[in-house]
Amino acid sequence: GLTRMLHLNDAPGAAGGDAAEAPIWKVLVLDAFCRDVVSTVLRVNDLRDNGITVHMQLEAQRSQIPNVPAIYFVAPTADNIKHIASDLARDLYELYYVNFSSSLPRTLLEDFAVQTTASGTAHQIAQVHDRYLDFLCPEENMFSLHLEGAFESIHSPSMTDTAMTALVDKIVGGLFSVVLTLKAIPTISAPRGNAAEMVATRLDAKLREHILSSRHNLFTEGAEDVVAQSRRPVLVLLDRDFDLGTMLVHSWTYQGLIHDLFDIRLNQVALTQTDDAGRRVPKSYDISANDTFWEGNAGQPFPEVAIAIEEASVAFKREADEITRMGGVGSLDEVGSLDMGASTKQLQRAITSLPELTARKANIDMHMNIATALLDLIKERQLDVLFQMEEQLGRQTKASILAAIADPEKKHAQDKLRLFALFVLSNDGLRQSDIDECEAALQAAGCDIAPLRYIRKLRSLARAGAGGALSAAVGGSGGAGAGGGSGGGSGDLLGKFSSIGTRFTGGASLGSILSGVRNLLPSRKQLPVTCMAEAAMGGRPAGGGLRATVGGVGVGGGGGTAAAAQALEGFVHFDPKQARRGNLAGTSAPAHRGALGSDGSAQEAIVFVVGGGNYAEYQNLMEFAQRSTLPRRIVYGATDIVNPAGFLAQLARLDATALG
């Protein structure tokens, strides 16, 4: 992976290496895409720990740094090859370790050889590697291909066959890298008739070609084949059209709220804060891969996160007070200046732990500031009220929706548009006159209803049969009520949330905000993507009327998983490791039977959405895997991770294109 690349393709601490031996200092040169790949998992300190003194952009003007090796990590493009060859000709570095994010085509390799031979610099190239790392990994079990606007591109009437083929090839290349990183050849399932089927067909062909024709099988078959066979994942490809609602819901989890209100880009949160002078200033925070608070609380309901921040703050203050008491000083800043030799052993240990305590304080302060900024917006936009309405969408009426649209306290026009869009998606029986009345109210409230027009167009196409079977089966236009998850409706955290403000360390301003926020606990229900994953993995439908939801859209009968299992029978299925035996597509016994355990269920799955994904689906899948009685691992991915505002913008542009 990346760490091996940063150590010149040697494992850290591997042979030749005494642990105490000084590291080889290197420079790292990145193109824009690979910079994003690296920045989602490594920060500047991490790079320095791996011997990187400086990292630079490939396209930037760079000066010569003699006697230093350079690691290049770039996409395999003709322009990048030209840049590297130019650097060689200018003799910028001593040795060149060239790493491509995906497979370098033979034509480009030959072109690279011609250019370096012409300049007489080929001997300076120490290594050339295909890394197969052309995806971003914002969370441990989550990836993005960083293909922005994929939903818009796929649905655009101006999309040519050539452009569509190029997009599908990019998706296939990214998925190939993902499964190669996992070292397991998956079976593949996808709905018929849309982009997901095109991706499935091409990925199956690419995997087959690699298995049959590669001299070196990168999936490490052979001796480990038995192990690999037993843990083969099921790859479920889905088109975004099957569930539009989840892209628009108001989240109530910490990570979901941050993505909705501030966005999370490359694991960096950008927001505005009020400084000491009362001015609104931009501020950004890095979410580190080793942030244990984030790891434990990102997917938790926001009220529980607020409690956790308070508890972490109180625990830190208790430890800090104890250390300052032992040292006889007034603050932690003064502890560092104490004489270690004259201190007691207990205090010496405390002084030694000072860097860790300082890092903890910075982490607590960061989450405190993010939570405070979230609470400001929750109160300003009445997001707690909107979340509760969407949790109980089946109980809403035209009158309650119109009242919310007209409410001057709900100041954000896009929030009202999202609420009504979810109401439309959850009600097949809405009269056109009711829709027109609500749309007029939205326009009066300052809403651009272009996204809504395009959603209605997609629904009409689904009803006409274009993808309608899957959409109806798992909630795309279900007729049953909303909010009927197995966890019941919204709950109260026994008043704990409302009292946090009075006890928050240094959080006096937080209390006034908290007093106006409802104490809500989300109901536990499976989203359509999770129902499809459970069905594909061979799981038994959960009891208790478990429902698939599209922002609260329920499916009656045997539950969302049962409906998803029925829809799955109409999918195309591929097993790249099996010889072709006619047409496996659409059979009731999918091709992944060879990957199942003795109980008939798969233990691993990759769920990928063509057209964009979000943190709500990721968190829902992780919760399903955690509460499963069987040990299961699910990896979630999408062409890009999109927040509601970004998705609405794509819908609006598509509507404008359709009208034009």
State which percent range the strand residues make up.
Answer: 5-15%
Question: Assembly type of the shown chains?
Answer: single chain
CATH fold type of the domain at 2-134: Rossmann fold
Mean pLDDT: 82
Q: Work out the radius of gyration.
A: 27 Å
Total count of strands: 15
CATH class wording of the domain at 2-134 = Alpha Beta
| Uncertain spans | 15-20, 471-513, 540-559, 585-589, 591-598
Would you identify the CATH architecture of the domain at 2-134? 3-Layer(aba) Sandwich
Termini Cα gap:
47 Å
Largest sheet: 7 strands, mixed
In CATH terms, the superfamily of the domain at 2-134 is Sec1/Munc18 (SM) protein, domain 1
Q: Strand order, biggest sheet?
A: 6-7-15-14-9-8-13
- Cα shape: globular
Please identify the structural class as seen in this structure.
alpha/beta
Helix fraction, binned, reads 40-55%
Number of distinct helices: 27
Family: Belongs to the STXBP/unc-18/SEC1 family.
Protein name: Vesicle trafficking between the ER and Golgi
Organism: Coemansia biformis
InterPro entries: Sec-1-like_dom1, Sec-1-like_dom3a, Sec1-like, Sec1-like_dom2, Sec1-like_sf
Describe the overall structure.
It is built from 27 helices and 15 strands. α4 runs parallel beside α5 (106-119) and α12 (302-327) runs parallel beside α22 (496-503). Residues 15-20, 471-513, 540-559, 585-589 and 591-598 have low confidence and may be disordered.
Kindly summarize this structure in a few lines:
One of its GO terms (biological process) is vesicle-mediated transport. The chain is of the alpha/beta class and 660 residues long.
